[in-house]
Design goal:
Low-confidence stretches: none
Protein name: DUF501 domain-containing protein
Number of strands: 9
CATH class of the largest domain: Alpha Beta
CATH architecture of the largest domain: 2-Layer Sandwich
Number of domains: 2
Shape: elongated
Helix content: 40-55%
CATH topology of the largest domain: Nucleotidyltransferase, domain 5
CATH superfamily of the largest domain: Exopolyphosphatase. Domain 2
Pfam families: DUF501 (PF04417)
Strand content: 5-15%
Largest sheet: 6 strands, mixed
Mean pLDDT: 94
Length: 306
């Protein structure tokens, strides 16, 4: 196993030219962020106090940057707030310059930026190291949104979006209703078990492809059927969305609708008669996903989002 210095050299692709500390590591202990001295060994100013070197992190923020992230962040963030962050960054860095130093000094704020935004990598590095950086917080939100595991409940397919990946699984709501859940009114227990297993087996394919799916915490459920679930659970026509659905509640509501006849199901407050079948298939899907991924909850997202 390489030493820290050897690994840093490998990640940089060169010998470090100044003093540094590893201040952020990933779950395996690999370096992610370096904190640099304000001057290199030869006295050259080093404006970038925090340097992102984790390969996965570089790829993630690099993709965001290549898709116009710098311009979007500048448009969405208050420039005075960003400038204040630059000033804090510069003050921390410059406080470490020896009092007797009379040579060139580091310039600018985050990553040497004098005004506005230049490098999302430098902002995220500072944020990951605990810095009070509004740009870093913006990056974190953007990455979380685009990398979120989203389940879209469609009639034709069960669509899963996760980062740059998409899966259209052949277990849409219509499939569950015609193949399994139309067997009896209410459906027979064996049919319910088969429907749950059908969804779980297809989600299993994603887990085999991306084992880290079993470590997911946040999952969104979208599509019109997500609103039908919220209506049923809350008991009103227009529930506040997004809303959280915990696993125990999902299991309880699923058991309720799965053991009711269609006629009885139609009397549930907030549930339109047109959704009495859809909501059963939707809940079956959500419960199967919750169980297979070991989730505590999902977030129901309104309407056609996703």
């Amino acid at each position: 196993m390489p030493t820290d210095d050897e690994r840093v050299r490998e990640l940089l692709g060169r010998e470090p030219r100044g003093d540094y500390e590893i201040v952020v590591r990933d779950a395996t202990g690999d370096p992610v962020v370096l904190r640099n001295a304000p001057l290199l060994h030869d006295g050259t100013p080093m404006p970038t106090r925090y340097w992102l070197i984790g390969p996965a992190e570089i790829r993630r923020v690099g993709r965001l940057e290549s898709e116009g992230g710098v311009d979007r962040a500048e448009a969405e963030l208050d420039p005075d707030v960003v400038q204040a962050a630059h000033d804090r960054y510069a003050a921390e860095r410059d406080a470490l310059i020896p009092a007797d130093h009379d040579g060139p000094r580091p310039y600018g704020g985050v990553g040497g930026t004098r005004i506005g935004l230049k490098c999302l990598h430098a902002h995220w590095a500072w944020y990951l190291a605990g810095g009070d950086d509004p740009v870093g917080r913006w990056i974190e939100r953007e990455l979380a949104a685009r990398e979120r595991f989203t389940v879209r409940l469609d009639d034709a397919v069960l669509r899963i979006d996760w980062g740059d990946d998409r899966w259209d699984l052949p277990v849409g709501l219509d499939h569950l209703l015609t193949t399994w859940l139309g067997d009896g009114d209410p459906p027979h227990p064996a049919a319910l078990t088969n429907a749950l297993g059908d969804v779980s087996d297809h989600v299993d394919d994603i887990v085999r492809d991306r084992p880290e799916a079993e470590a997911l915490v946040e999952v969104g459920v979208t599509g019109p059927a997500a609103r039908a679930i919220a209506r049923l659970e809350v008991g009103v026509d227009d529930p506040a969305m997004p809303c959280e659905l915990d696993r125990d509640t999902a299991e309880e509501v699923f058991r309720l609708v799965a053991t009711e006849s269609r006629a009885d199901r139609a009397h549930n407050p907030g549930l339109p008669s047109a959704d009495v079948d859809t909501v059963l298939a939707a809940l079956c899907t959500v419960v199967a996903v919750l169980r297979r991924l070991g989730l505590d909850r999902v977030e129901l997202v309104a309407g056609d989002a996703g």
